[in-house]
Every structure is written in C-alpha cells, then in structure tokens.
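Box 3.1 A note on notation
Throughout this textbook, protein chains are presented in two layers. The first layer is the amino acid sequence; the second is a token string describing backbone geometry. Keep the layers aligned when reading.
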Amino acid sequence: MRTSFAQIAIILLVAAGAAATRLCHAHADHTPDATTAPATSVTIEVHDGVRHITSTGLPDHEPGKFPNRNNPNTIAPQRYEFRVPASPKPLEAPREAPRGMLFGVAVNGVVFDPGTAEFWRDDPALGWRMEAIGGPRNLGLDRHHAHVQPSGAYHYHGVPTGLIEKLGGTNAKQPLLIGWAADGFPIYSPLSYRVADDPKSGVKVLRASYRLKEGSRPPQPDAPGGKYDGAYTRDFEYAAGSGDLDECNGRFGVTPEYPGGTYYYVITEQFPFVPRRFRGEPDESFNKRGGPPPGARGGGGGGGQPPRRGPPR
C-alpha cells in the first residue's frame, strides 16, 4: 500500500504563522535575511513500511545572508535520499549518535545536524568539540539557527525559526510536526502538551533536561580550562527530571498525528538544541558523505555531494 505524506507536508508548510518565540542567538550572524528564498523540493512518501524522503535541502523560508563574514559558503542544492521505518521501534537503551551521521530531516527537506567540525586547538583527538550556539567561534548562524557547509548544504543547528513560523509559530495550540529523525521517530517543535498524554492539558514550551557541569574544565594543555560555560559539548551533563525530556531530548506522548501515542523528539531552545542520542536504530542513509576538516568554517557535515572547501575569510 502506498501512502503519501507530501500533500500533508505541503498543506502544513503553507500555513500562515505568527512571529516565533524570541530565542537565544549567541554568536549568531545578524546580517539581514536574503530578499528571495531559493526554491525547495521535497517529497515524503510511505510504502512497504518505509518512509522515503528526497530533497534538495533548500529551505522554504528566507535564509540568512550567505556568504557572510563568519561563513564564506553559498547555499547550493543537494541530492538527499533518506529512508526511515514508518513504524520505528525503540531500542532497549538509547545510543549515542554515530559520528558522521545527520540527526534527521525537516519536513521542508533541510537537515538537522547538531555537531560542528570545530574543536579546541582544531584537534578532534582531544575531544573538546565547540558548540555552534554559544561556542567560542562565530560560525555565522542565521536567525533560523542554520548556516552552510562548504558543500553548499544549508542545515539547522537548533530551532528552525522560519519553518515554525510557516507552521503556526507561537499561535499554535498543539505540537507542530517539523521532521523525522534518522531512526524514524518524529521530531516536534518546542511547543507541546503540558501533560504528555493529555491533548486537553494546554500547551507549553518544553525544556531539555541538560545542565552545565559545576566547576571548571581540566587545565591546558589537554583541555581548554576555564569554567563550564556551554562553549563546548562536554560542558553539559544530563540531569534526569530537571526538564521535560529524557536524555534523547524526547518523550512518549500523544500528538495530532499520533493520537494513540508515540515516542517523539523535540528541538529545544536549550542544549542539546538538536538531540545527540537516538531512541531507535538510525538508518545508514543519514550518514554524511564527507565533511569539512577540523577548523573549516561551516560546522558539521551536510551529507549529499562531497564537500567543497569554502574560500578563506
């Protein structure tokens, strides 16, 4: 049986939205948005128990100005072909996102990629990965918490503001489906039901259950030193019960698309922003096909075609 999600996605994406909630834009590039958004193409279909997602990776909203002074790369079409189970199953225990894997893809075809290619001293072996939001280097993010790979791949590091505006923004009265994770579970905006299994409980902005570690990082030369302040991924730790979500930045609950309940991920306004762990088994189609070397501007890997090095600043 062949079922299309594309029509549903198109209807959602043309919905008028109000202004999105004001978010933290640490080290964001404040150049004006481009005057014209590039054309996007995305197809989402389900057949034989598999959801197939093909996309050019171009946003359906106006992106920021690229290149900009902190990101020298130009947005270019990609050739994404993803597949995920339509009825995913949770693993016995969560698993860390494999290195070199995208977390998921939005309903507009833009990918979610939480990691960066930037490390302290540009040395991945030391393990101190810089965060794209709040990190020590300005990576030229736009107001959608996105920027561009040397390959031209536009990708989200946090809440996709423009997409959420199209889907209903802060006026929404129910959770907003914004994408699919590599393991097949759905991804929602920060706004969701106050009580996970009660759609009549009203809505609130869900919070992650991560916090900054206390004290200071190990001293140089093996670590950056200084207080844990959110500049590096290792600055954070999971604190069960401190927020609304689990270590995968998700929870079980009902949504408009899943009235009987499902596990779903949430893109949050706090770390980890985009989840860093999977509740299910991620599909290999989300493996990145190359990426920039440590220190190359763009952060993370965009998948699609092999990357091109961005020009020097």
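The first helix runs from residue 6 to 13. Helices lie at 6-13, 161-167.
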